[in-house]
Amino acid sequence: MKRSFLFTGLLSLTLSMAGAKATVIPPKAVAPLPLPKQVRWQQMETLAFVHFGLNTFDDKEWGYGDVSPKIFNPAKLDCEQWVRTFVNAGIKEVIITAKHHDGFCLWPTQLTDYCIRNSPYKNGKGDIVGELAAACKKYGIKFGVYLSPWDRHQANYGTPEYVEYFYKALKELLTNYGTISEVWFDGANGGDGWYGGSKEIRKIDRKTYYQFERAHEIVDELQPEAVIFSDGGPGCRWIGNESGFAGATNWSFLRSKDVYPGYDKYEELQYGHADGDKWVPGECDVSIRPGWFYHPSEDKKVKTVPELVDLYYRSVGRNANFLLNFPVNRDGLISPLDSANAVNYHQQIRHELSHNLLTGIRPIASNERGKGFEASNVSDNKYDTYWATADNVKSAVLTFTLSKATKINRLLLQEYIPLGQRVKSFVVEYQFKGKWNAIDPKEETTTIGYKRILRFPTITTDKLRIRFIDARGCLCINNIAAYYSGSDDQKITDRSELKVEGYSFVLSGVDPVEMNKAVDRNKLTTCFIKDNKVVIDLGQKRWVHALHYLPDQNSPRKGLVSNYELSEGDQTGDAKVIATGEFSNIRNNPVWQTVYFSPVYTRYITFKATRMVQDGESFGLAEIRIE
Length: 627
Ligand code: FUL
Prior knowledge:
Jelly Rolls, TIM Barrel, about 30% strand
């Protein structure tokens, strides 16, 4: 609290020093408020993630913790190549998986043998955390670390000793690598692991086991500039999906007592809590490929430029930061298509938002607080000057008159967040043939926050107005810009579709209406099966080599399979197991899951759920294909 007041004080001082002569008292801040470092964090807007480790070489998303470090040998590794890509893609910070759930450490720690010291990479002399930190320094971007609390390797995971180990690792990362700007604590915990060879399921209490208050103290002490990510912050929050988008309504607040890493009602995180007591802005994490780690089978599944552009608008354009993951490949490089698409999407955004059609236009406001807070501040391209209304004026209209009828299809708005997030609802209108019409952004126009960007079908007008309808205090708006993207086409291709057609089949014993939901090409209908297994009957013997499974896509998602067993045969005769495994991370990233197996010539495949994400739920299939 103290810090926020200090910050507001400093700002008004800065304003008067800049000559803006604030003769009128600035609006009072409306809590909750961001710390100055959270404002700086949000101003970065786009960030990179790097997932790299043993999984890269073992073709896994969640390593079990038992694979030898000897397989880790990225022969051409070049962190500068990564960072050059990020710089060219407009990215301001990178976060690396210093330790993922498998426990393997990318820095040469003495705390465990399960680290880069025991890999062939640079004959055990490498330090990828250090190499990346140095590359970031050289190219002027910020650097952050992901340290997984869950550790499937350590024998003492689940005991208090492991927690000490975790904090020692954290201290090493925060002491030896210069300035750390973000620390990522993942909420995932699937329970089972290698755990020093005991290979069992270990359940911990996610609220209390890791004693996260200690993490916060350590970070505050060793790296006071760092923002801490977790489901509940305190610096920034998970956005509740791993698809890279925020809710159109997005508050930067959370009820801090409710949310903890591993929070059950994580879908709320897309929107924030309108009645929250702490400032915890959203961060939208998503991978440029379907998986977080590199898999050769995904070389052709890199997100396209239009898909990345769309995600930018649905993250940065909805008051959140965009954290785009790059699965570094087995050479230790970002693959060419991933780099090209990231750089080209950034160019495209720059192109679409390059020419602000409102620059220098003095809008007319229905209410103005007074000198220093004029409406013209919204189009002066300065962050720290803003238009404010008088205390208690929570609705007002701002009208822009352009010099001639102009094409417009993007509108950008920013609230002056050092004084809080206020706007609850607004409408954008334009004049056409003397009449006011509303634009059609195809999403609700409720919150604004740090930044909101609306896309809408092109209008041609010389008069644009924004009607602010309701707010949590008087209005404080520091920027409004309008653009024409250069094209009227709003089409976005959905590449989450699986292209495989597959063989036709029936699910034996399943009611045909229910079964149809698993094959109807409609992702939103889900077939639920009471048993924990289903027999797929291909009608005749065929050569098959893959099963593709899409989990429930509705909210809340139900019936997700965590571990599976596939067998050939209908299990009435000689069933033979052909594959077993885990759909890692399916809860957070419910994309198509594919199991490839050695080709078999068979009529029946049995798909058995050996473990569900949520015990006791029926087995749900949004879609299924056999290839
Ligand atoms: C998840 C993890 O389980 C994934 O493997 C990945 O690291 C993602 C960013 O967070 O919760």
